[in-house]
Amino acid sequence: MKIVGITSCPTGIAHTYMAAEKLQKTAEAKGYEIKIETQGARSENILTTQEIEEADVVILAIDKEVDMSRFSGKKIKKVSTAKAIRDADTIIDEAINEIGTYTSKITSDTHTTNNQGIMKNLYNHFMNGVNYMLPFVIAGGILIAISFAFGIDASNPESESYNALAGALSKIGGDTAFALMVPALAAGISISIAGRAGLATGFVAGTLAAAGGSGFLGGMIGGLLAGYITNLFANKVNIKASIAPIYQLIVVPLLAISLTGFIMIFLVEAPVTALLNLLTGFLNGLGETSGIIFGLLIGIMMAADMGGPINKSISTFSIGLMSAGVNAPIAACMAAGMVPPLGLALATILFKNKFTKEEKTSGKSCWVLGSSYITEGAIPFAVADPIRVIPSLMVGSAVTASISMGAGITSMAPHGGIWVMFIPNVINNVPIYLLAIVAGTIVTAVMVGLLKKEVVSNKDEYSTESLQRNGDRTNVI
């Protein structure tokens, strides 16, 4: 039995590779031949045409669109990366036994998906937009932060502390890269819907949103408008082959951009701008109590699925708020996202008798993962014992985020991790920020330690992976 597949998540950092590793090890343990192509930050282990042709089944563990034309005529099992990480054993069995599979009939590069609900499609479109936006946000935000290291006003030519290098960094990061985040978001959404034809329309819609004041909310709406309108003209209208090139080159962008632009200006801009201003005013005016409550919500959502849709929703929302000058939610998000792996790392030290040997080894790597804001490092622990671990992670992250919001901490960088934290002037109150992270880490560790049962400490101790394969748990219930 030969299996090929692709794993791909929106950010391409953790879920992509964790799902690939899980599928690879599980299939090999069953005696199957398998090759998984990872489409993360870059594509690796790329499948050849011959390998795809020789495969008996294709497993796609993806959270964003991929080129389906390569698998035309093949039997396909399609799941999310989270499901592949959580239950690779079942996925492989179902793929082999043709349960929940379908045969791809797509013969050209396409943007469409099969058997997906409207909400799932919308989520994929938004995540594709986020994927396009993130490089601008991360690079722009960090460059702005570095410019602040020269002094908070060092980039201002009229300031006495003006520094030319700081001014250049601010111009590149803030005036250019950061300014393109909303257009890139809209373009990514539009491309997800309409394919490459949606690029220009999406950029125009996003630029109108940014210039008109509707910000990231307008960019999201504009991206959807641009995608569906472009898709209508580009892919749904039958045109004679003799005029098709001119139609696609001139008519489609002209009609799509014009119609999308008119809708954005006359129907979307005013109400969405008012809504964004209302939201911005509310968030900027949060008192200590309100901030703590909002922080609790942020923390719970950040730890609920550790890089999954819920986590991405609140982090994307917080990044979008940065374009409106609201920088406290992103600080809470970044801190809350560090806590799950840090808390589990600490728990493996404080409560050694409650973790398997393999988990204790994984706990060491969680120090690095947590410090680098890779929340997904907690997933193996959550998969092995979700009832006890996930609530502990949510409570710890909620404590951290609520302290951060309650103290009014802001961040100029849309990325977490200790590496960003110590750039001067990025975090407005580093000591309290660190205290919040430490407090959440301790809460998570103690809660996990209290909830988990002791592991069987003899030769029958099972590894996490073998227990998962057998549908068992790591604890003595």
Gist?
Helix content is 63%, strand content 6%. The protein is an alpha/beta fold and 477 residues long.
Task: Reconstruct the topology from this structure.
Elements: E1 2-8, H1 15-29, E2 33-39, E3 43-44, H2 49-54, E4 57-62, E5 75-79, H3 81-86, H4 88-96, E6 101-103, H5 118-148, H6 164-177, H7 181-194, H8 198-212, H9 215-236, H10 244-284, H11 288-304, H12 309-322, H13 328-350, H14 357-371, H15 379-384, H16 386-406, H17 418-421, H18 430-451, H19 464-469
Parallel strand pairs: 1-2, 1-4, 4-5
Antiparallel strand pairs: 2-3, 5-6
Helix pairs in contact: 5-6, 5-7, 5-12, 7-8, 7-9, 8-9, 8-10, 9-10, 11-12, 11-13, 11-16, 12-13, 13-14, 13-16, 13-18, 16-18
GO molecular function: carbohydrate:proton symporter activity; kinase activity; protein-N(PI)-phosphohistidine-fructose phosphotransferase system transporter activity; protein-phosphocysteine-sugar phosphotransferase activity
Main location: membrane
Pfam families: PTS_EIIC (PF02378), PTS_IIB (PF02302)
Please provide a written account of the structure.
It is found in: Cell inner membrane. GO terms for molecular function: carbohydrate:proton symporter activity; kinase activity; protein-N(PI)-phosphohistidine-fructose phosphotransferase system transporter activity; protein-phosphocysteine-sugar phosphotransferase activity. The chain is an alpha/beta fold and 477 residues long. The chain folds into three domains: 2-104, 3-Layer(aba) Sandwich (Rossmann fold), CATH 3.40.50.2300; 115-280, no CATH class; 286-451, no CATH class. It has helices at residues 15-29, 49-54, 81-86, 88-96, 118-148, 164-177, 181-194, 198-212, 215-236, 244-284, 288-304, 309-322, 328-350, 357-371, 379-384, 386-406, 418-421, 430-451, 464-469, and strands spanning 2-8, 33-39, 43-44, 57-62, 75-79, 101-103. The protein has a six-stranded mixed sheet with strand order 3-2-1-4-5-6. A hairpin with a 3-residue loop joins strand 2 (33-39) and strand 3. Helix 9 runs antiparallel to helix 10 and helix 16 (386-406) packs antiparallel against helix 18. The model is unreliable at 107-115 and 459-477 (pLDDT under 50).
